[in-house]
Every structure is written in C-alpha cells, then in structure tokens.
C-alpha cells in the first residue's frame, strides 16, 4: 500500500490484488495474471517464448532456463530422467520459438509436439534435424537413445508439462503482446500479481515457478539498478520447488536491485527444497520474521537462533537461559512476531494490521469476496 517502487506478488487467493490494486495503480502500471479468475479482473498474459528470438544471442540460455523451470526436481529423486527431459525440452522450445509459425510460438505448441502420436512425433524430430544448431542436436540425441530410455525421457517431459493442457493456462501463456517482467525495473511503480487458488497449487505450481523464474531472469539481464529495490513478495514459497535462479538471487540481490521476501510455513519446507543450501537464505537475509509458530522443530531451531540471556538468581548465581524457549515461542499471541535485523539483537514486536491502522486509511479497498 505504501511502497512506491515495483512489486511482484504471489497472491494465491487474489486477496492482495482485490485489496491493493487501486492503490498500486496510483504508483504505476498494474497487471493481474489470474488464469482461474480469483480476482474478478480481466487477466493479463505473459508468453515466455517471446524473449527467445533469432536476434537474441542469449536465446539458447533462455530456452535452457525455461526448460529448467518446467522440470521440478525433488530431493532424492533420480536426476537422470529429469535432466534428460529438461535437455530435450530445451531443444523443442528452441524449435517452437525459432521455427514455428508466429502464432504457434508458445508453450502450448511445445506440449502439442511432445504428446503427438508416434508417427507425427517422428516426423517432427526429422524436421528438427534439418534446423541445425541446438535444435538439431537435441533431436539427434533423442533419436540415438535406446527405445526404453527415449520412452522414459519423453514420459518425464510429458509429466512436467501436463499443466499446459489447461485452456486457462494456455490463455495466460500464449499472448504475443503480453506484459514484460522487464517493466519491473524499467517503469518504477509497476506491479504484477500472480494469482492462483491454493487448491490448484499442486497442479499448477509450475506456472508460478515459471513466472518467478522469468522475472528473475529479467532482473539479472537488465544492468540498470533502480533507486529503490524491486520487491518480490513470495507467498506460498514452497510451491515453487527448488529453483537455481532463486538460490543464485539470494546471494546477489543487491546487485540485481531487488528484495526477495519469501513466506514459509516452517523451516522444514525450506530444507526439503534446498537441503543444506537452505542456510544460504538465512545468511543473506537482511531481516527474518517469525510468527505463528506451531511446529516444534521450527520452534526449537528459532529458539537456538535467537540466542540466550544471562539471568541472576536470588542467591547471586548467574545462568544462561534462552531468550525464548520453544514452548514460549509457540504460545506467542497472534499479534506478536520476533524480528531479527542483520547486526541487531532479536526484537519482540507487534504486527501492524493495515485495516485498523490510521496510516492506511483510505488506501485499500474492502475485499468483495470476503
């Protein structure tokens, strides 16, 4: 409501858009990507293949990043099939973006190709072999595989792109004149809401992952540094899965001119996605907020993180005690939070409620769907 610079918002229920879009439009262009109509507003569109053009020297890298965003890897899962599927998708994406008719240059065509019947698929591979470069090599590599391996790679690619069968997904991904995430840096005050209902996150979380990945790529590609950082407000962070672009951005945020603000239910969500690299998030964080703790393992770790204090008993003995024990953390009232700012002692603070604080009066709209 008050941050006048650009913001990207993961907004699962569309509440943020419904409440703040009017005020955000006062700061600059506001786009709502809303395939399932949770906001009641007309949805914008973004075609990730639009950046992959013949005159773009980074087209192969962009295709590789797009394929990597489509393939969600899980901890402990056999990486071979995912890696091979991503490599093959990279070639198909390049083929569609550079060699298909302009109106077919979108992810729906990628899905159409990899789910085609055997004869049509074989014919497309032959066409790809005539295209040269990475497209030809991707087709050659696929055709050189034994039948069983090729079938496994193709089925893995199909599994990771199944969400593209949705007509709603195709609508927000197929526009030739959609928005550009580069606007976040180029036009101060731009806002982009990514809205998807929570009950669709398991099926369509890849779309969120894809959008965030594309936005991060635009942040990294643009050398301009805004006067105030672009804010990425990442609710339902775990739904994105592990992303190399996010892990990289956590260490380079200042150079990219942005702030990442992820929200997690508990620490196990972060560890399950990033393993030992989860510590990087905390090491690079300028601020960490803890509230609503109801998981004992998270509470234990938070208790250890915020440290101890020295207390003196009536007889003069000094002993160390946790600033907050795990059970005390889990009993914090809902209006309280613990905030750790880099280089400062932990602070017990109250949370501001925008709807009752005079500072925000008149800036927000009542949510018509509540």
Break the fold down into its secondary structure elements and pairings:
Blueprint: E1 7-10, H1 15-27, E2 30-33, H2 59-70, H3 79-99, H4 107-114, H5 118-129, H6 133-143, H7 147-160, H8 167-173, H9 183-186, E3 191-194, H10 201-221, E4 230-234, H11 244-256, E5 258-262, H12 267-274, H13 278-283, E6 287-290, H14 296-306, E7 308-312, E8 318-322, H15 326-330, E9 336-341, E10 347-350
Tell me about this structure.
- It is built from 15 helices and ten strands.
- The protein has helices spanning 15-27, 59-70, 79-99, 107-114, 118-129, 133-143, 147-160, 167-173, 183-186, 201-221, 244-256, 267-274, 278-283, 296-306, 326-330, and strands at 7-10, 30-33, 191-194, 230-234, 258-262, 287-290, 308-312, 318-322, 336-341, 347-350.
- The strands form three sheets. Strands 2-3-1-4-5 form a five-stranded parallel β-sheet, sandwiched between helices.
- A hairpin with a 5-residue loop joins strand 9 and strand 10.
- Helix 2 (59-70) crosses helix 3, helix 3 (79-99) crosses helix 6 (133-143) and helix 10 runs parallel beside helix 11.
- The mean pLDDT is 90.
């Amino acid at each position: 409501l008050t941050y006048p610079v650009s913001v990207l918002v993961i907004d699962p229920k569309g509440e943020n858009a419904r409440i703040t879009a009017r005020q955000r439009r006062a700061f600059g262009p506001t786009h709502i990507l809303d395939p399932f109509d949770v906001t009641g507003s007309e949805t914008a569109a973004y075609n990730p293949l639009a950046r992959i053009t013949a005159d773009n020297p980074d087209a192969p890298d962009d295709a590789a990043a797009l394929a990597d965003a489509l393939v969600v890897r899980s901890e402990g899962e056999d990486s071979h099939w995912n890696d091979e599927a991503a490599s093959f998708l990279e070639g198909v994406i390049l083929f569609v973006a550079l060699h298909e008719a302009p109106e077919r240059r979108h992810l729906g065509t990628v899905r159409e190709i990899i789910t085609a019947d055997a004869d049509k698929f074989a014919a497309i591979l032959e066409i790809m072999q005539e295209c040269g470069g990475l497209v030809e090599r991707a087709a050659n590599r696929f055709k050189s595989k034994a039948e069983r391996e090729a079938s496994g790679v193709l089925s893995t690619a199909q599994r990771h792109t199944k969400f593209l069968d949705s007509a709603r997904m195709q609508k927000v991904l197929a526009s030739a004149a959609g928005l550009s995430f580069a606007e976040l840096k180029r036009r101060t005050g731009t806002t982009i809401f990514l809205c998807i209902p929570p009950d669709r996150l398991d099926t369509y979380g890849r779309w969120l992952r894809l959008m965030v990945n594309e936005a991060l790529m635009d942040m990294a590609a643009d050398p301009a540094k805004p006067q105030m950082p672009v804010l990425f407000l990442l609710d339902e962070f775990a739904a994105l899965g592990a992303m190399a672009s996010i892990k990289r951005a956590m260490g380079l945020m200042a150079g990219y001119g942005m702030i990442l603000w992820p929200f997690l239910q508990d620490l196990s969500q972060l560890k399950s996605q990033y393993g030992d690299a989860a510590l990087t998030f905390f090491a690079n964080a300028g601020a960490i907020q803890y509230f609503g703790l109801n998981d004992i393992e998270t509470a234990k770790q938070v208790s250890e993180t915020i440290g101890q204090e020295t207390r003196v008993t009536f007889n003069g003995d000094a002993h160390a005690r946790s600033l907050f024990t795990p059970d005390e953390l889990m009993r914090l009232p809902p209006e309280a939070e613990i905030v750790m700012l880099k280089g400062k002692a932990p602070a017990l603070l109250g949370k501001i409620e925008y709807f009752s604080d005079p500072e925000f009066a008149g800036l927000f709209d009542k949510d018509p769907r509540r």
